[in-house]
Design goal:
The chain is of the alpha/beta class. The strands form 2 sheets. The chain has a 4-stranded mixed β-sheet. A two-stranded parallel ribbon has the order 5-6. A hairpin with a 3-residue loop joins strand 1 and strand 2. Helix 5 crosses helix 6. It is globular and about 45 Å long. The two termini are 27 Å apart. 33% of the residues are buried. The N terminus is likely disordered.
Length: 195
């Protein structure tokens, strides 16, 4: 989870959140604010990471639940995803200022990974023109403020092992299974599923 420093909090007059229940995973929460009268999603909190809500309340004391019609489609798409259906996420309302330059490149390329496919940290590094930066790619994905929408769960180790995930290995495995990825007994993925 990524909480910016107090200087960035001054740019946000208020921070709001919306909860999206899932029958399998629990609640997913996304946090949003208005910047220059434009609503922007600043963070998506994976289910099973309830402790993050306390961190957000500390970082943003005025945090409150609210709705915004701009995000109705996000809520719908997130519900579809959490129910194992295909969702067509958009990135126009994500607050890209939350990401550092290299991370933006990584996350924008990760967004292109098709449903039902995975790639490795090394291959993703190659695709952004930084072939020796597999570890840096892993670090950028670990700090992804917009999981699911920017599908960091579709990035695995070069040997096909699932690797790490902010919501835990069980959640990553479940997300990939929902997307049609075959996963072997030792949490490895068939090379034919690679993008």
């Amino acid at each position: 989870m990524m909480i910016k420093n107090s200087n960035n909090r001054k740019n946000c007059t208020s921070v709001f959140y919306r909860k999206i229940p899932s029958p399998v995973f629990g609640e997913l929460i996304f946090f949003w604010t208005r910047k220059d009268d434009n609503p922007r999603i600043i963070e998506i909190m994976l289910p099973e990471k309830e402790y993050c809500m306390e961190k957000m309340k500390t970082a943003y004391p005025d945090l409150r639940e609210d709705t915004c019609s701009y995000f109705d489609f996000y809520e719908n798409d997130l519900r579809l995803f959490l129910n194992g259906q295909e969702a067509a996420f958009l990135t126009e309302f994500l607050d890209w200022e939350r990401c550092y330059t290299f991370q933006k490149r990584v996350l924008q390329k990760a967004f292109e990974i098709p449903r039902g496919k995975v790639t490795s940290y090394g291959r993703l590094a190659e695709k952004i023109g930084a072939p020796r930066a597999a570890r840096a790619v892993g670090s950028a994905l670990a700090k992804n403020p917009f999981p699911i929408v920017l599908p960091c769960h579709r990035v695995v180790r070069s040997n096909g092992h699932l690797g790490n995930f902010g919501g835990g290995i069980h959640q990553k495995r479940t997300f990939l299974l929902m997307e049609g990825i075959n996963i072997g007994k030792e949490n490895t993925i068939d090379p034919r599923s690679f993008w």
